[in-house]
Amino acid sequence: MKPDIKQKIENLLNFANLRRTGPRAAVLSVLLGARKPQTAHQIAAKLSHITPNKVTIYRTLESFLAAGLVHKAFLQQRCWHFELSHNCTKNQCHPHFTCTNCGDVYCLTEKQMPMAKSPYKGFIISHQRIQLEGLCPKCNSNLQLTNSHKQM
Ligand SMILES: [Zn+2]
Ligand SMILES: [Zn+2]
Fold first, then answer.
1. Pair 83, 36: CB distance under 8 Å
2. What is the pLDDT of residues 93-123, one digit of tens each?
3. Of the ligands numbered here, which is closest to the C-alpha atom of 81?
4. Rounded distance, CA 129 to CA 54, Å?
5. Burial of 24 (0-12, 13-18, 19+ CB in 10 A)
6. Which of 6, 36, 61, 92 is the right S-S partner for 128, CB 3.0 to 4.6 Å?
7. How many distinct helices (H) and strands (E) make up the chain?
8. Ligand 2: distance of its center to the CA of 66 in Å?
């Protein structure tokens, strides 16, 4: 494990007031290295050589969830994904963008969307989950290339 990753894990656990254990450090190292949200299954698969017990991984994720260290992102695949909290509040986590062409998921960790107001009297909004869809920059520029070829 790289020293800077080790330090980051130390900081996250301190922040969450959690004792350092092998499985906790291992799950955090996966999440720190992940570019996009991971399912518990994906995390467990990556750690099968260190922590063969999947239940330990699930419990670790639950403890991170309770501590606010991770949150659940509900993506297209209809299955919960876990990731580190970035700019997340009690009411809202950062938005996710799914490319409809390549299926890649992007965490828009720098963005925070204004909270929606209740559209009807009597409804109280407690949580907002923003899921954006469209073309990623890669697919968008490929598409433009294809179109300009057609025009020629
Ligand atoms: Zn794409
Ligand atoms: Zn995310």
1. yes
2. 888 898 989 988 888 888 778 888 888 899 9
3. 2
4. 28
5. buried
6. 92
7. 5, 6
8. 17
Residue 34 half-sphere exposure toward CB, CA atoms < 13 A: 23
CA 15/CA 95 separation, integer angstroms: 23
Report the first-to-last Cα separation within the chain, whole angstroms. 52
Ligand lying closest to the C-alpha of residue 106: 2
Q: How many angstroms separate the CA atoms of 99 and 101, rounded?
A: 5
pLDDT for 64 = 94
Distance 147 CA to ligand 2 centre (A): 32
Say how many Å lie between the CA of residue 98 and the centre of ligand 1.
8
- What is the Å distance from ligand 2's center to 78 Cα? 15
Q: Tell me the per-residue pLDDT of 27-86, one tens digit each, with 9 for 90 and over.
A: 999 999 998 889 999 999 999 988 778 899 999 999 999 998 998 887 655 667 788 887
Q: Which H or E element spans position 70? A: strand 70-74
CA of 83 to the centre of ligand 2 (A): 6
